[in-house]
Amino acid sequence: MPSDPLDILKRVFGFQSFRPLQEEIVARILDGQDAFVLMPTGGGKSLCFQLPALLRQGVGIVVSPLISLMKDQVDALRASGVRAAYYNSSLGQKAARQVLAELHAGQLDLLYIAPERLMSPGFLERLRDMDVALIAIDEAHCISQWGHDFRPEYTQLGVLRRSFPGVPLVALTATADVQTRQDILSRLELDDDDCFVTSFDRPNIRYTVLEKHQPARQLMKFLAGHGSEAGIVYALSRKRVEEVAKKLCDAGLSAAAYHAGLGDGERQRVQDEFLRDELQIVVATVAFGMGIDKSNVRFVVHYDLPKNIEGYYQETGRAGRDGLAAEALLLFGYGDIALCRGLIEKGHNEEQNRIELHKLNAMASFAEALTCRRQVLLGYFGEHATEDCGNCDICLQPPETYDATEDARKALSCVYRVGQRFGAGHVIDVLRGTRNERMLRLGHDRLSTYGIGADVSRDAWGSLVRQLVHRGYLYQDVGNYSVLRLTEKARPLLRGEITLQLAKPRIKVKAVKKPSSR
Ligand code: ADP
Ligand code: ZN
Protein backbone atom coordinates (compact mmCIF):
# COMPACT_ATOMS: atom_id res chain seq x y z
CA MET A 1 0.00 0.00 0.00
CA PRO A 2 1.83 3.17 -1.13
CA SER A 3 1.42 5.99 1.35
CA ASP A 4 2.85 8.94 -0.46
CA PRO A 5 0.59 12.03 -0.68
CA LEU A 6 1.51 12.71 -4.28
CA ASP A 7 0.64 9.17 -5.22
CA ILE A 8 -2.79 9.45 -3.57
CA LEU A 9 -3.28 12.84 -5.23
CA LYS A 10 -2.81 11.24 -8.63
CA ARG A 11 -4.46 7.89 -8.03
CA VAL A 12 -7.51 8.85 -6.00
CA PHE A 13 -8.11 12.47 -6.92
CA GLY A 14 -6.77 12.36 -10.45
CA PHE A 15 -4.66 15.55 -10.12
CA GLN A 16 -1.11 15.84 -11.36
CA SER A 17 0.22 18.34 -8.86
CA PHE A 18 -0.66 20.22 -5.71
CA ARG A 19 -2.09 23.69 -5.73
CA PRO A 20 -0.31 26.37 -3.68
CA LEU A 21 0.02 25.37 0.01
CA GLN A 22 -1.92 22.11 -0.33
CA GLU A 23 1.22 20.04 0.00
CA GLU A 24 2.45 21.94 3.06
CA ILE A 25 -0.92 21.69 4.76
CA VAL A 26 -1.21 17.97 4.06
CA ALA A 27 2.31 17.42 5.42
CA ARG A 28 1.50 19.32 8.58
CA ILE A 29 -1.61 17.30 9.25
CA LEU A 30 0.18 14.03 8.51
CA ASP A 31 2.66 15.19 11.11
CA GLY A 32 -0.19 15.26 13.62
CA GLN A 33 -0.45 19.03 13.89
CA ASP A 34 -3.30 21.51 13.46
CA ALA A 35 -3.92 23.85 10.57
CA PHE A 36 -5.90 26.97 9.83
CA VAL A 37 -6.49 27.30 6.10
CA LEU A 38 -7.52 30.62 4.59
CA MET A 39 -7.97 30.19 0.87
CA PRO A 40 -10.35 31.81 -1.55
CA THR A 41 -13.27 29.83 -2.83
CA GLY A 42 -12.09 27.37 -5.42
CA GLY A 43 -8.56 27.37 -4.01
CA GLY A 44 -8.78 23.68 -3.19
CA LYS A 45 -9.46 23.59 0.52
CA SER A 46 -11.26 20.24 0.58
CA LEU A 47 -8.25 18.29 -0.58
CA CYS A 48 -6.29 19.62 2.41
CA PHE A 49 -8.27 17.41 4.76
CA GLN A 50 -9.55 14.73 2.40
CA LEU A 51 -6.11 13.55 1.42
CA PRO A 52 -4.58 13.24 4.91
CA ALA A 53 -7.77 11.54 6.10
CA LEU A 54 -6.96 8.75 3.66
CA LEU A 55 -3.40 8.45 4.85
CA ARG A 56 -3.98 8.60 8.58
CA GLN A 57 -5.40 5.79 10.65
CA GLY A 58 -9.12 6.11 11.39
CA VAL A 59 -12.02 8.21 10.18
CA GLY A 60 -11.77 11.86 9.20
CA ILE A 61 -14.61 13.91 10.69
CA VAL A 62 -15.72 16.88 8.60
CA VAL A 63 -18.02 19.45 10.18
CA SER A 64 -20.01 21.46 7.65
CA PRO A 65 -23.08 23.66 7.95
CA LEU A 66 -24.14 23.07 4.38
CA ILE A 67 -26.28 20.02 3.91
CA SER A 68 -26.42 20.31 0.13
CA LEU A 69 -22.65 20.58 -0.08
CA MET A 70 -22.16 17.49 2.06
CA LYS A 71 -24.07 15.29 -0.31
CA ASP A 72 -22.19 16.60 -3.35
CA GLN A 73 -18.82 16.11 -1.74
CA VAL A 74 -19.66 12.63 -0.53
CA ASP A 75 -20.99 11.62 -3.93
CA ALA A 76 -17.83 12.88 -5.61
CA LEU A 77 -15.59 11.08 -3.11
CA ARG A 78 -17.47 7.82 -3.52
CA ALA A 79 -17.13 8.08 -7.26
CA SER A 80 -13.37 8.14 -6.68
CA GLY A 81 -13.56 5.06 -4.50
CA VAL A 82 -13.29 6.82 -1.13
CA ARG A 83 -15.39 5.38 1.68
CA ALA A 84 -17.32 8.52 2.60
CA ALA A 85 -20.71 9.18 4.16
CA TYR A 86 -22.67 12.04 5.64
CA TYR A 87 -24.74 12.30 8.77
CA ASN A 88 -27.29 15.10 8.99
CA SER A 89 -30.96 15.84 9.36
CA SER A 90 -31.69 14.98 5.73
CA LEU A 91 -31.13 11.26 6.40
CA GLY A 92 -34.03 8.97 7.27
CA GLN A 93 -33.74 6.79 10.38
CA LYS A 94 -32.67 3.71 8.51
CA ALA A 95 -29.99 5.48 6.51
CA ALA A 96 -28.73 7.20 9.66
CA ARG A 97 -28.42 3.85 11.46
CA GLN A 98 -26.55 2.45 8.50
CA VAL A 99 -24.02 5.30 8.60
CA LEU A 100 -23.44 4.83 12.32
CA ALA A 101 -22.94 1.10 11.81
CA GLU A 102 -20.31 1.77 9.15
CA LEU A 103 -18.64 4.30 11.42
CA HIS A 104 -18.37 1.82 14.27
CA ALA A 105 -17.19 -0.96 12.01
CA GLY A 106 -14.30 1.27 10.93
CA GLN A 107 -15.54 1.24 7.35
CA LEU A 108 -15.39 4.98 6.76
CA ASP A 109 -12.50 7.15 5.61
CA LEU A 110 -14.51 10.35 5.88
CA LEU A 111 -17.70 11.29 7.69
CA TYR A 112 -19.35 14.62 6.93
CA ILE A 113 -21.48 15.77 9.79
CA ALA A 114 -23.64 18.74 10.74
CA PRO A 115 -22.37 20.61 13.83
CA GLU A 116 -25.47 19.98 15.90
CA ARG A 117 -25.20 16.24 15.23
CA LEU A 118 -21.56 16.14 16.21
CA MET A 119 -22.24 18.00 19.44
CA SER A 120 -25.43 16.08 20.28
CA PRO A 121 -25.35 14.09 23.53
CA GLY A 122 -23.25 10.98 23.24
CA PHE A 123 -21.77 11.54 19.81
CA LEU A 124 -18.40 12.81 20.96
CA GLU A 125 -18.23 9.85 23.38
CA ARG A 126 -18.76 7.49 20.47
CA LEU A 127 -15.87 9.10 18.65
CA ARG A 128 -13.57 8.92 21.62
CA ASP A 129 -13.72 5.13 21.45
CA MET A 130 -12.50 4.96 17.90
CA ASP A 131 -9.60 6.09 15.75
CA VAL A 132 -10.14 9.60 14.48
CA ALA A 133 -7.77 10.60 11.68
CA LEU A 134 -8.53 14.30 11.93
CA ILE A 135 -11.33 16.76 12.57
CA ALA A 136 -11.96 19.34 9.85
CA ILE A 137 -14.18 22.36 10.41
CA ASP A 138 -15.32 23.71 7.09
CA GLU A 139 -16.73 27.27 6.77
CA ALA A 140 -14.93 27.97 10.03
CA HIS A 141 -15.88 31.67 9.95
CA CYS A 142 -19.35 30.58 11.11
CA ILE A 143 -17.85 30.36 14.60
CA SER A 144 -17.20 34.10 14.74
CA GLN A 145 -19.60 36.91 15.40
CA TRP A 146 -17.31 39.09 13.31
CA GLY A 147 -17.84 36.89 10.29
CA HIS A 148 -20.79 37.60 8.09
CA ASP A 149 -22.41 34.22 8.63
CA PHE A 150 -22.34 33.52 12.36
CA ARG A 151 -24.01 30.26 13.39
CA PRO A 152 -24.73 29.67 17.08
CA GLU A 153 -24.38 25.90 16.68
CA TYR A 154 -20.77 26.47 15.68
CA THR A 155 -19.75 28.07 18.97
CA GLN A 156 -19.77 24.73 20.79
CA LEU A 157 -17.05 23.45 18.44
CA GLY A 158 -14.60 25.37 20.60
CA VAL A 159 -14.33 22.31 22.88
CA LEU A 160 -12.99 20.05 20.14
CA ARG A 161 -9.33 20.96 20.48
CA ARG A 162 -9.32 19.85 24.11
CA SER A 163 -11.67 16.90 23.72
CA PHE A 164 -9.44 15.24 21.15
CA PRO A 165 -5.82 15.74 22.11
CA GLY A 166 -3.50 14.33 19.50
CA VAL A 167 -6.08 14.50 16.73
CA PRO A 168 -5.23 17.17 14.12
CA LEU A 169 -7.81 19.93 13.98
CA VAL A 170 -8.17 21.70 10.63
CA ALA A 171 -10.23 24.86 10.30
CA LEU A 172 -10.95 26.13 6.79
CA THR A 173 -12.54 29.28 5.46
CA ALA A 174 -12.58 31.69 2.56
CA THR A 175 -13.35 34.70 4.73
CA ALA A 176 -10.38 36.99 4.82
CA ASP A 177 -11.19 39.77 7.24
CA VAL A 178 -8.44 40.10 9.88
CA GLN A 179 -10.73 40.31 12.89
CA THR A 180 -12.66 37.17 11.96
CA ARG A 181 -9.46 35.30 11.44
CA GLN A 182 -8.18 36.15 14.92
CA ASP A 183 -11.50 35.16 16.40
CA ILE A 184 -11.46 31.74 14.72
CA LEU A 185 -7.94 31.07 15.94
CA SER A 186 -8.72 31.93 19.53
CA ARG A 187 -12.01 30.06 19.68
CA LEU A 188 -10.51 26.89 18.27
CA GLU A 189 -7.28 27.30 20.24
CA LEU A 190 -5.10 27.42 17.17
CA ASP A 191 -2.04 29.65 16.85
CA ASP A 192 -0.18 31.61 14.23
CA ASP A 193 2.07 28.68 13.37
CA ASP A 194 -0.99 26.78 12.22
CA CYS A 195 -1.95 29.41 9.64
CA PHE A 196 -1.81 28.86 5.91
CA VAL A 197 -2.99 31.76 3.80
CA THR A 198 -2.93 31.84 0.00
CA SER A 199 -3.31 34.79 -2.27
CA PHE A 200 -6.83 36.00 -2.83
CA ASP A 201 -6.15 37.15 -6.34
CA ARG A 202 -8.33 35.65 -9.05
CA PRO A 203 -6.43 36.81 -12.13
CA ASN A 204 -8.88 35.27 -14.60
CA ILE A 205 -11.77 37.41 -13.36
CA ARG A 206 -12.13 40.73 -15.15
CA TYR A 207 -13.67 43.36 -12.89
CA THR A 208 -15.82 46.06 -14.42
CA VAL A 209 -17.92 48.76 -12.81
CA LEU A 210 -20.52 50.68 -14.76
CA GLU A 211 -22.38 53.67 -13.55
CA LYS A 212 -25.95 52.46 -13.24
CA HIS A 213 -28.42 54.45 -15.27
CA GLN A 214 -30.70 52.05 -17.10
CA PRO A 215 -29.86 48.83 -15.31
CA ALA A 216 -32.19 46.53 -17.21
CA ARG A 217 -30.84 47.67 -20.55
CA GLN A 218 -27.28 47.63 -19.32
CA LEU A 219 -27.77 44.06 -18.16
CA MET A 220 -29.30 42.99 -21.48
CA LYS A 221 -26.43 44.50 -23.37
CA PHE A 222 -23.92 42.73 -21.19
CA LEU A 223 -25.74 39.39 -21.54
CA ALA A 224 -25.86 39.78 -25.30
CA GLY A 225 -22.09 39.44 -25.23
CA HIS A 226 -22.25 36.17 -23.37
CA GLY A 227 -24.31 33.91 -25.64
CA SER A 228 -25.48 30.88 -23.71
CA GLU A 229 -22.79 31.03 -21.03
CA ALA A 230 -23.77 30.37 -17.44
CA GLY A 231 -23.93 33.22 -14.99
CA ILE A 232 -25.41 34.65 -11.81
CA VAL A 233 -27.11 38.02 -11.39
CA TYR A 234 -27.25 39.25 -7.80
CA ALA A 235 -29.86 41.74 -6.68
CA LEU A 236 -30.55 43.20 -3.26
CA SER A 237 -34.16 42.26 -2.59
CA ARG A 238 -36.51 39.41 -3.37
CA LYS A 239 -38.75 41.78 -5.23
CA ARG A 240 -35.93 42.98 -7.45
CA VAL A 241 -34.84 39.39 -8.06
CA GLU A 242 -38.33 38.49 -9.25
CA GLU A 243 -38.51 41.54 -11.51
CA VAL A 244 -35.16 40.97 -13.16
CA ALA A 245 -35.75 37.24 -13.61
CA LYS A 246 -39.06 37.99 -15.29
CA LYS A 247 -37.45 40.50 -17.63
CA LEU A 248 -34.84 37.99 -18.68
CA CYS A 249 -37.41 35.25 -19.22
CA ASP A 250 -39.60 37.64 -21.21
CA ALA A 251 -36.59 38.35 -23.38
CA GLY A 252 -36.38 34.65 -24.13
CA LEU A 253 -33.39 33.89 -21.92
CA SER A 254 -33.07 30.78 -19.81
CA ALA A 255 -33.30 32.36 -16.37
CA ALA A 256 -34.86 31.69 -12.97
CA ALA A 257 -35.22 33.48 -9.65
CA TYR A 258 -33.69 32.23 -6.43
CA HIS A 259 -34.27 33.69 -2.97
CA ALA A 260 -35.12 32.61 0.54
CA GLY A 261 -38.82 33.31 0.01
CA LEU A 262 -39.20 30.41 -2.42
CA GLY A 263 -40.07 26.88 -1.32
CA ASP A 264 -37.32 24.34 -0.73
CA GLY A 265 -38.43 22.34 -3.75
CA GLU A 266 -38.23 25.28 -6.11
CA ARG A 267 -34.86 26.35 -4.83
CA GLN A 268 -33.48 22.85 -5.15
CA ARG A 269 -34.81 22.66 -8.69
CA VAL A 270 -33.16 25.93 -9.71
CA GLN A 271 -29.88 24.91 -8.16
CA ASP A 272 -29.88 21.45 -9.74
CA GLU A 273 -30.76 22.74 -13.19
CA PHE A 274 -28.07 25.38 -12.96
CA LEU A 275 -25.50 22.79 -11.92
CA ARG A 276 -26.53 20.52 -14.78
CA ASP A 277 -26.23 23.37 -17.31
CA GLU A 278 -29.94 23.18 -18.04
CA LEU A 279 -30.50 26.68 -16.75
CA GLN A 280 -28.31 29.50 -18.00
CA ILE A 281 -28.85 32.36 -15.57
CA VAL A 282 -29.85 32.45 -11.94
CA VAL A 283 -31.08 35.79 -10.64
CA ALA A 284 -30.61 35.65 -6.91
CA THR A 285 -30.24 37.30 -3.57
CA VAL A 286 -27.05 36.53 -1.68
CA ALA A 287 -28.83 33.42 -0.40
CA PHE A 288 -27.63 31.72 -3.56
CA GLY A 289 -24.23 30.29 -4.11
CA MET A 290 -22.76 29.33 -0.79
CA GLY A 291 -21.13 25.99 -1.33
CA ILE A 292 -22.20 25.66 -4.92
CA ASP A 293 -19.40 24.04 -6.86
CA LYS A 294 -20.02 24.96 -10.45
CA SER A 295 -16.78 25.59 -12.22
CA ASN A 296 -18.02 27.06 -15.50
CA VAL A 297 -19.85 30.15 -14.25
CA ARG A 298 -18.64 32.71 -16.81
CA PHE A 299 -20.04 35.88 -15.29
CA VAL A 300 -21.41 37.37 -12.11
CA VAL A 301 -23.39 40.59 -12.30
CA HIS A 302 -24.22 42.76 -9.33
CA TYR A 303 -27.38 44.54 -10.29
CA ASP A 304 -27.27 46.38 -6.96
CA LEU A 305 -24.40 47.45 -4.76
CA PRO A 306 -23.25 44.72 -2.34
CA LYS A 307 -23.10 45.79 1.29
CA ASN A 308 -19.42 45.11 1.72
CA ILE A 309 -16.30 44.08 -0.13
CA GLU A 310 -16.26 40.68 1.56
CA GLY A 311 -19.62 39.86 0.01
CA TYR A 312 -18.65 41.30 -3.36
CA TYR A 313 -15.45 39.30 -3.41
CA GLN A 314 -17.17 36.09 -2.40
CA GLU A 315 -19.96 36.49 -4.93
CA THR A 316 -17.75 37.48 -7.85
CA GLY A 317 -15.48 34.60 -6.85
CA ARG A 318 -18.13 32.17 -8.02
CA ALA A 319 -17.19 33.07 -11.57
CA GLY A 320 -14.35 31.34 -13.35
CA ARG A 321 -13.53 28.66 -10.85
CA ASP A 322 -12.21 26.57 -13.74
CA GLY A 323 -9.50 29.19 -14.21
CA LEU A 324 -10.82 30.30 -17.61
CA ALA A 325 -11.66 33.90 -18.37
CA ALA A 326 -14.69 35.22 -16.49
CA GLU A 327 -16.33 38.58 -15.89
CA ALA A 328 -17.60 40.42 -12.87
CA LEU A 329 -19.84 43.39 -13.61
CA LEU A 330 -21.05 45.80 -10.97
CA LEU A 331 -23.79 48.29 -11.75
CA PHE A 332 -23.19 51.12 -9.37
CA GLY A 333 -25.73 53.83 -8.63
CA TYR A 334 -25.85 56.55 -6.01
CA GLY A 335 -29.30 55.49 -4.85
CA ASP A 336 -27.95 52.09 -3.85
CA ILE A 337 -25.71 53.58 -1.22
CA ALA A 338 -28.64 55.17 0.52
CA LEU A 339 -30.63 51.95 0.16
CA CYS A 340 -27.90 49.85 1.76
CA ARG A 341 -27.43 52.42 4.43
CA GLY A 342 -31.11 52.25 5.28
CA LEU A 343 -30.93 48.46 5.57
CA ILE A 344 -27.91 48.63 7.83
CA GLU A 345 -29.48 51.23 10.09
CA LYS A 346 -32.43 48.93 10.72
CA GLY A 347 -30.03 46.84 12.78
CA HIS A 348 -30.34 47.31 16.52
CA ASN A 349 -26.73 46.98 17.53
CA GLU A 350 -25.15 50.40 17.19
CA GLU A 351 -21.58 49.18 17.24
CA GLN A 352 -22.41 46.59 14.57
CA ASN A 353 -24.11 49.25 12.44
CA ARG A 354 -21.05 51.42 12.67
CA ILE A 355 -18.79 48.59 11.45
CA GLU A 356 -21.19 47.85 8.61
CA LEU A 357 -21.40 51.48 7.52
CA HIS A 358 -17.65 51.65 7.30
CA LYS A 359 -17.65 48.47 5.25
CA LEU A 360 -20.26 49.99 2.96
CA ASN A 361 -18.10 53.06 2.56
CA ALA A 362 -15.17 50.90 1.49
CA MET A 363 -17.44 49.17 -1.03
CA ALA A 364 -18.58 52.49 -2.49
CA SER A 365 -15.04 53.67 -2.67
CA PHE A 366 -14.02 50.50 -4.55
CA ALA A 367 -16.78 51.17 -7.05
CA GLU A 368 -15.61 54.71 -7.53
CA ALA A 369 -11.92 53.84 -7.64
CA LEU A 370 -9.91 55.22 -10.52
CA THR A 371 -7.03 52.89 -9.78
CA CYS A 372 -6.75 49.24 -10.76
CA ARG A 373 -9.73 47.40 -9.24
CA ARG A 374 -7.65 44.40 -8.33
CA GLN A 375 -5.22 46.55 -6.37
CA VAL A 376 -8.07 48.05 -4.40
CA LEU A 377 -9.70 44.67 -3.79
CA LEU A 378 -6.56 42.89 -2.68
CA GLY A 379 -5.42 45.89 -0.69
CA TYR A 380 -8.64 45.67 1.30
CA PHE A 381 -7.68 42.17 2.37
CA GLY A 382 -4.19 43.29 3.31
CA GLU A 383 -2.50 41.96 0.18
CA HIS A 384 -0.53 44.61 -1.67
CA ALA A 385 -0.09 44.22 -5.39
CA THR A 386 2.43 46.62 -6.87
CA GLU A 387 1.50 46.41 -10.52
CA ASP A 388 -1.67 47.21 -12.37
CA CYS A 389 -3.46 43.99 -13.29
CA GLY A 390 -4.24 44.69 -16.94
CA ASN A 391 -7.54 42.86 -16.54
CA CYS A 392 -10.04 45.33 -15.12
CA ASP A 393 -11.96 48.22 -16.63
CA ILE A 394 -9.58 50.79 -15.20
CA CYS A 395 -6.49 49.06 -16.59
CA LEU A 396 -8.10 48.37 -19.94
CA GLN A 397 -9.61 51.82 -20.41
CA PRO A 398 -7.55 54.09 -18.23
CA PRO A 399 -9.32 57.25 -17.21
CA GLU A 400 -7.85 60.54 -18.37
CA THR A 401 -5.14 61.79 -16.06
CA TYR A 402 -3.92 65.22 -15.03
CA ASP A 403 -1.03 66.61 -13.00
CA ALA A 404 -2.45 66.42 -9.48
CA THR A 405 0.76 67.23 -7.65
CA GLU A 406 -0.38 70.58 -6.26
CA ASP A 407 -3.83 69.40 -5.24
CA ALA A 408 -2.40 66.27 -3.66
CA ARG A 409 0.06 68.33 -1.64
CA LYS A 410 -2.73 70.57 -0.44
CA ALA A 411 -4.77 67.58 0.66
CA LEU A 412 -1.86 65.85 2.36
CA SER A 413 -0.76 68.92 4.26
CA CYS A 414 -4.34 69.50 5.31
CA VAL A 415 -4.51 65.96 6.73
CA TYR A 416 -1.34 66.79 8.62
CA ARG A 417 -2.63 70.15 9.87
CA VAL A 418 -5.77 68.64 11.38
CA GLY A 419 -3.52 66.32 13.34
CA GLN A 420 -4.25 63.15 11.33
CA ARG A 421 -7.33 62.75 13.48
CA PHE A 422 -10.16 63.45 11.02
CA GLY A 423 -11.91 61.75 8.14
CA ALA A 424 -12.17 62.86 4.52
CA GLY A 425 -15.34 64.90 5.05
CA HIS A 426 -13.77 67.27 7.52
CA VAL A 427 -10.46 67.50 5.66
CA ILE A 428 -12.38 68.56 2.57
CA ASP A 429 -14.39 71.08 4.59
CA VAL A 430 -11.14 72.64 5.72
CA LEU A 431 -9.71 72.68 2.19
CA ARG A 432 -12.82 74.32 0.85
CA GLY A 433 -13.02 76.78 3.69
CA THR A 434 -16.42 75.63 4.85
CA ARG A 435 -17.76 77.72 7.74
CA ASN A 436 -19.71 75.66 10.21
CA GLU A 437 -20.09 75.41 13.94
CA ARG A 438 -17.68 72.50 14.20
CA MET A 439 -15.00 74.26 12.20
CA LEU A 440 -15.12 77.25 14.48
CA ARG A 441 -15.26 75.17 17.65
CA LEU A 442 -12.14 73.28 16.56
CA GLY A 443 -10.46 76.48 15.48
CA HIS A 444 -9.68 74.86 12.14
CA ASP A 445 -10.66 78.03 10.30
CA ARG A 446 -7.33 79.38 11.52
CA LEU A 447 -5.26 76.62 9.92
CA SER A 448 -2.90 77.59 7.10
CA THR A 449 -4.68 75.11 4.82
CA TYR A 450 -8.13 76.54 5.52
CA GLY A 451 -9.76 77.49 2.24
CA ILE A 452 -6.72 76.80 0.04
CA GLY A 453 -8.83 74.50 -2.14
CA ALA A 454 -12.02 76.53 -2.45
CA ASP A 455 -11.71 76.50 -6.24
CA VAL A 456 -12.04 72.70 -6.46
CA SER A 457 -15.42 71.02 -6.06
CA ARG A 458 -16.27 68.79 -3.15
CA ASP A 459 -16.67 65.76 -5.43
CA ALA A 460 -13.32 66.38 -7.05
CA TRP A 461 -11.63 66.59 -3.64
CA GLY A 462 -13.42 63.38 -2.65
CA SER A 463 -12.12 61.62 -5.72
CA LEU A 464 -8.60 62.89 -5.12
CA VAL A 465 -8.56 61.76 -1.50
CA ARG A 466 -9.83 58.31 -2.46
CA GLN A 467 -7.13 57.98 -5.06
CA LEU A 468 -4.51 58.99 -2.52
CA VAL A 469 -5.85 56.25 -0.25
CA HIS A 470 -5.93 53.62 -2.99
CA ARG A 471 -2.41 54.51 -4.04
CA GLY A 472 -1.07 54.37 -0.52
CA TYR A 473 -0.27 58.05 0.14
CA LEU A 474 -2.94 58.18 2.78
CA TYR A 475 -4.10 55.52 5.17
CA GLN A 476 -7.78 55.41 6.02
CA ASP A 477 -8.39 53.72 9.33
CA VAL A 478 -11.63 51.88 8.72
CA GLY A 479 -11.67 50.61 12.29
CA ASN A 480 -11.42 54.15 13.67
CA TYR A 481 -13.99 56.52 12.17
CA SER A 482 -12.21 56.37 8.79
CA VAL A 483 -9.58 58.79 10.08
CA LEU A 484 -6.98 59.77 7.49
CA ARG A 485 -3.27 59.52 8.21
CA LEU A 486 -0.17 60.15 6.12
CA THR A 487 2.00 57.23 5.11
CA GLU A 488 5.75 57.14 4.48
CA LYS A 489 4.99 57.39 0.80
CA ALA A 490 3.46 60.84 1.33
CA ARG A 491 6.74 62.46 2.40
CA PRO A 492 8.52 62.92 -0.93
CA LEU A 493 5.30 64.25 -2.40
CA LEU A 494 4.89 66.76 0.39
CA ARG A 495 8.52 67.81 0.07
CA GLY A 496 8.00 68.46 -3.62
CA GLU A 497 10.46 65.75 -4.68
CA ILE A 498 8.01 63.92 -6.94
CA THR A 499 5.04 64.75 -9.10
CA LEU A 500 1.81 62.83 -9.26
CA GLN A 501 -0.55 62.05 -12.13
CA LEU A 502 -4.06 61.15 -11.03
CA ALA A 503 -7.22 60.22 -12.85
CA LYS A 504 -9.84 62.80 -13.64
CA PRO A 505 -13.04 61.82 -11.86
CA ARG A 506 -15.30 59.76 -14.11
CA ILE A 507 -18.29 59.29 -11.91
CA LYS A 508 -19.50 61.31 -9.00
CA VAL A 509 -20.40 59.74 -5.72
CA LYS A 510 -21.87 61.06 -2.57
CA ALA A 511 -20.04 59.61 0.41
CA VAL A 512 -21.98 57.63 2.95
CA LYS A 513 -22.90 59.83 5.84
CA LYS A 514 -21.39 58.60 9.08
CA PRO A 515 -23.55 57.96 12.15
CA SER A 516 -21.00 59.70 14.33
CA SER A 517 -17.55 61.12 13.95
CA ARG A 518 -15.13 63.20 15.85
P1 ADP B 1 -12.71 25.34 -2.00
O1 ADP B 1 -13.31 24.40 -0.97
O2 ADP B 1 -11.46 25.98 -1.53
O3 ADP B 1 -13.70 26.32 -2.53
P2 ADP B 1 -12.54 22.97 -3.56
O4 ADP B 1 -11.89 22.10 -2.57
O5 ADP B 1 -14.00 22.77 -3.79
O6 ADP B 1 -12.25 24.48 -3.24
O7 ADP B 1 -11.74 22.84 -4.93
C1 ADP B 1 -12.07 23.62 -6.02
C2 ADP B 1 -11.85 22.85 -7.29
O8 ADP B 1 -10.47 22.65 -7.52
C3 ADP B 1 -12.48 21.48 -7.27
O9 ADP B 1 -13.10 21.26 -8.49
C4 ADP B 1 -11.29 20.56 -7.05
O10 ADP B 1 -11.54 19.30 -7.61
C5 ADP B 1 -10.17 21.29 -7.76
N1 ADP B 1 -8.84 20.98 -7.21
C6 ADP B 1 -8.49 20.94 -5.92
N2 ADP B 1 -7.18 20.65 -5.78
C7 ADP B 1 -6.68 20.49 -7.03
C8 ADP B 1 -5.37 20.17 -7.56
N3 ADP B 1 -4.31 19.96 -6.77
N4 ADP B 1 -5.26 20.11 -8.91
C9 ADP B 1 -6.33 20.33 -9.70
N5 ADP B 1 -7.56 20.61 -9.27
C10 ADP B 1 -7.75 20.71 -7.95
ZN1 ZN C 1 -6.48 46.39 -13.05
Structural commentary:
The strands form 4 sheets. Strands 3-4-2-5-6-1-7 form a 7-stranded parallel sheet, with helices on both faces. Strands 8-13-12-9-11-10 form a 6-stranded parallel sheet, with helices on both faces. It has a two-stranded antiparallel ribbon with strand order 14-17. The protein is α/β, with parallel strands linked by helices and 518 residues long. α13 links the parallel β10 and β11. It contains 23 helices and 17 strands. The chain is globular, with a radius of gyration of 25 Å. The structure holds adenosine-5'-diphosphate (ADP) and zinc ion. The site of zinc ion has 9 residues, from α17 and α18. The site of zinc ion (ZN) has 9 residues, from α17 and α18.
SSE topology sketch:
Elements: H1 5-11, H2 22-30, E1 35-38, H3 45-55, E2 59-63, H4 67-79, E3 84-87, H5 93-104, E4 110-113, H6 115-118, H7 123-128, E5 132-137, H8 152-155, H9 160-163, E6 169-173, H10 178-187, E7 195-197, E8 205-211, H11 215-224, E9 230-234, H12 238-250, E10 255-258, H13 264-275, E11 281-284, E12 297-302, H14 309-316, E13 326-332, H15 334-345, H16 350-367, H17 373-380, H18 393-396, E14 401-403, H19 405-417, H20 424-432, H21 437-442, H22 458-470, E15 474-477, E16 483-486, H23 490-494, E17 501-503
Parallel strand pairs: 1-6, 1-7, 2-4, 2-5, 3-4, 5-6, 8-13, 9-11, 9-12, 10-11, 12-13
Antiparallel strand pairs: 14-17, 15-16
Helix pairs in contact: 2-3, 15-16, 19-20, 20-22
The chain binds adenosine-5'-diphosphate and zinc ion.
Residues 372-374, 388-389, 391-392, 394-395 line the site of zinc ion.
